[in-house]
């Protein structure tokens, strides 16, 4: 006859077996029910993933923000610190990611709210002008969005290289909403037909002045340096990559590409589709303002060029920071081509020569000429300079 102790042991074992079977059946029921109800609904799945991700976010510190009660929930969702799924990361020296956004963004809550108001996973508003206004006010970088940008309804493929270098792209490659002109014919002819000022007003006419830019130096001592003249300063093949700051429609980059040199062109879209046009020509645009820190590592670029943009319209302190940023990204022996810098005659001696000399460049070429396009009474001058970061002891 079995003892009471053995009977009790069998009862416990049966109880545990029942629990095991019950839990497995319950798991099977939940998983099949969830799969059948959610796998056919990808939108719900995405929403569940987003909700789960949001649950791991930490609250945004808004103590220094202006008007935080009016800030868009999407802005807060993007900028709030994100907990890393695997905890502490030695590369970040943190267990969180802090998405970057321009300090000035929250100084303009109305514009920011409009920019960040959209339906997640759907189409973004057609708001290029608003985005650029925020960016130029210092909201740079702009916050990321979770929507699809406006695009041409019937996009036409660009011309193949090298045909694309000097061909006007199709009107169907651009969203024209933000611009006065609604096609390239208007942009090409606006120098003759449009009153008032527009940035780079004749740049889109590739058969006009653009065709002759930087092809050769006009004369000895001219402020118009030619590309081949500049490249001869360095050993052949050592100028390979670089940057053009405020490069209009990318003609400098195209000229350099024809010589197997890769140039990235920064440009804004000031009443014209400059970035789209640059890309259509087959060179790389970068949509950043003159205030943005250059997104390159130290001592990496062979050449930095800028024409007209770096001039006395910029605050002097901002320009000082910018010149040092150019020095930073140039490799030792790299060239800074300051092309048609303009200012008042007395400013050059009193302000800009001391400022440039404080950076640490060596002067390779330095030419000063009179700027007469706005009248001799303004006493404006041009400076074109080729400056070199020292090959040794540049630190």
TrEMBL record:
<protein>
    <submittedName>
        <fullName>Putative S-adenosyl-L-methionine-dependent methyltransferase</fullName>
    </submittedName>
</protein>
<keyword id="KW-1133">Transmembrane helix</keyword>
<keyword id="KW-0325">Glycoprotein</keyword>
<keyword id="KW-0812">Transmembrane</keyword>
<dbReference type="InterPro" id="IPR029063">
    <property type="entry name" value="SAM-dependent_MTases_sf"/>
</dbReference>
<feature type="transmembrane region" description="Helical">
    <location>
        <begin position="12"/>
        <end position="35"/>
    </location>
</feature>
<dbReference type="GO" id="GO:0008168">
    <property type="term" value="F:methyltransferase activity"/>
</dbReference>
<dbReference type="GO" id="GO:0012505">
    <property type="term" value="C:endomembrane system"/>
</dbReference>
<dbReference type="InterPro" id="IPR053223">
    <property type="entry name" value="Prob_Methyltransferase"/>
</dbReference>
<keyword id="KW-0472">Membrane</keyword>
<dbReference type="GO" id="GO:0032259">
    <property type="term" value="P:methylation"/>
</dbReference>
<dbReference type="InterPro" id="IPR004159">
    <property type="entry name" value="Put_SAM_MeTrfase"/>
</dbReference>
<comment type="similarity">
    <text>Belongs to the methyltransferase superfamily.</text>
</comment>
<keyword id="KW-0489">Methyltransferase</keyword>
<dbReference type="GO" id="GO:0016020">
    <property type="term" value="C:membrane"/>
</dbReference>
<keyword id="KW-0808">Transferase</keyword>
<dbReference type="Pfam" id="PF03141">
    <property type="entry name" value="Methyltransf_29"/>
</dbReference>
<keyword id="KW-0735">Signal-anchor</keyword>
């Amino acid at each position: 006859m079995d003892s009471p102790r053995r009977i009790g042991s069998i009862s416990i074992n049966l109880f545990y077996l029942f629990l095991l079977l019950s839990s497995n059946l319950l798991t099977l029921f939940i998983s099949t029910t969830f799969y059948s109800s959610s796998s056919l609904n990808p939108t719900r799945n995405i929403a569940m993933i987003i909700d789960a991700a949001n649950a791991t976010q930490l609250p945004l510190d808004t103590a220094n923000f202006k008007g935080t009660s009016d800030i868009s929930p999407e802005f807060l969702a993007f900028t709030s610190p994100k907990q890393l799924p695997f905890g502490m990361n030695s590369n970040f020296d943190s267990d969180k990611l802090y998405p970057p956004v321009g300090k000035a963004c929250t100084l303009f809550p109305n514009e920011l709210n409009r920019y960040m108001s959209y339906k997640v996973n759907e189409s973004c508003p057609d708001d290029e002008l608003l985005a650029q206004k925020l960016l130029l006010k210092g909201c740079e970088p702009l916050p990321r969005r979770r929507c699809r940008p406006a695009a041409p309804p019937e996009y036409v493929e660009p011309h193949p290289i090298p045909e694309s270098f000097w061909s006007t792209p199709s009107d169907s490659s651009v969203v024209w909403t933000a611009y006065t002109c609604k096609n390239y014919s208007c942009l090409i002819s606006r120098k003759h037909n449009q009153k008032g000022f527009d940035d780079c007003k004749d740049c889109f006419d590739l058969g006009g002045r653009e065709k002759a830019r930087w092809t050769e130096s006009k004369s000895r001592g001219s402020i118009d340096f030619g590309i081949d003249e500049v490249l001869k300063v360095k050993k052949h093949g050592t100028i390979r990559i670089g940057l053009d700051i405020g490069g209009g429609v990318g003609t400098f980059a195209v000229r350099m590409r024809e010589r197997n040199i890769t140039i990235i062109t920064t440009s804004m879209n000031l009443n014209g589709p400059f970035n789209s046009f640059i890309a259509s020509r087959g060179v790389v645009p970068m949509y950043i303002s003159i205030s943005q820190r250059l997104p390159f590592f130290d001592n990496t670029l062979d050449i930095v060029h800028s024409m007209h943009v770096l001039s006395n319209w910029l605050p002097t302190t901002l320009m000082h920071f910018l010149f040092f940023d150019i020095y930073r990204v140039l490799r030792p022996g790299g060239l800074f081509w300051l092309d048609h810098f303009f200012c008042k005659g007395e400013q050059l001696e009193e302000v800009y020569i001391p400022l440039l000399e404080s950076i640490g460049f060596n002067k390779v070429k330095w030419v000063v000429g009179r700027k007469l396009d706005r009248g001799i009474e303004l006493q404006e001058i041009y400076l074109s300079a080729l400056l070199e970061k020292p090959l040794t002891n540049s630190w």
